[in-house]
Amino acid sequence: MKSRNLWDFALTQKRKNKTKRFSYERDRKQTQVCSRTVHSKTVRQHLMNIFNRHTKVRHIKRFENNFLEIIKNDLPKIYEVSKLKELVSICTHYNNGIPSGITLLHRYINNDAYNTVKQNHQSHFFIYGLAVWHKKSNEFKKIRLHCSNDSIQGIDVEKPEKFHSNFDLNKIKLDTLKIEELPIGPNPDKEIVEKILSELNKNQLEQLELEYTFEFKDDGKLLYSIIDMEDGNCIAVDKNGAIYRWNHDSDNRILEIAKNPTEFFKFYNGQKTELKHFMNQ
């Protein structure tokens, strides 16, 4: 049932539900107060489903914490880096336009943590062998994790928006652990972004951070990160070249700050401090 019809459904059910009247005694006289409808379990369940429909940060935090506990001896570097970051946001990543997993966005706890990770944790790899309990099939199913700088960056899973409802995130086990190192090669998203930013010169492109650009979608808008603000937020560009600040803490997470790349470089010359005021808008 679509959410816009939920209240019509609730009103229909109300006619079938019992209405209880509550009363209290004052000076030995019983006084009636307003009626309260006791909704059926069906209505309550629909209301709960509306608010729990999509996988949220709290679900991935639970999964990440459970994962870290079982791998801290086998993969101590990942456990070490986890103490230097905190998960602040998630988004769906796509493969040929099809939702194929969840991207995790972390924030460093301080500048020293950022410098430590960038200097000492340069590896990029896939983790195989992790299995999570699938509720419908009543069995463990293996999923693949993508790690960058010794931190979980992606969870490859079908129907990522239903990850928390399809799997029991508390039932995780590690079978045969396999690590597949990823050479730092061409980033396919970088090629897309460079075409979008084709009006910029070489010096301007070098002031952006395109090596680790990635595609993400928020509020129906497809974006590519071009500057990591080092706090879980970023500056991003869409396919038309408009520049946005993306702030996971803001009520308005996506805010356009320039109509095109040339306009963006009228106020940006490579110093991230010049962009800080946009993050608070």
Mean pLDDT: 81
Strands, total number: 13
> What is the first-to-last residue Cα distance?
37 Å
Helix content: 25-40%
Structural class: alpha+beta
Radius of gyration: 24 Å
Low-pLDDT ranges:
1-7, 9-39, 46-51
Q: Main sheet? A: 6 strands, antiparallel
Discrete helix count: 10
Strand content: 35-45%
Note the run of SSEs as H and E: HEEHHHEEHEEEHEHHEEEEEHH
Give a brief outline of the structure:
The protein has 281 residues and is an alpha+beta fold. It has helices spanning 6-16, 41-51, 57-71, 76-82, 111-120, 163-166, 188-196, 202-206, 261-264, 276-279; strands spanning 19-26, 29-37, 85-95, 98-108, 124-134, 139-148, 151-156, 167-181, 215-218, 221-228, 234-237, 243-246, 254-258.
Q: How would you describe this structure to a colleague?
A:
The chain has 281 residues and is α+β, with helices and mostly antiparallel strands. It has three domains: 3-51, no CATH class; 57-181, no CATH class; 188-279, no CATH class. It is built from ten helices and 13 strands. It has helices at residues 6-16, 41-51, 57-71, 76-82, 111-120, 163-166, 188-196, 202-206, 261-264, 276-279, and strands at residues 19-26, 29-37, 85-95, 98-108, 124-134, 139-148, 151-156, 167-181, 215-218, 221-228, 234-237, 243-246, 254-258. Strands 3-4-7-6-5-8 form a six-stranded antiparallel sheet. The chain has a five-stranded antiparallel sheet with strand order 9-10-11-12-13. A two-stranded antiparallel sheet has the order 1-2. The longest helix has 15 residues, at 57-71. The protein starts with 5 loop residues before the first helix and ends with a helix. The relative contact order is 0.10.
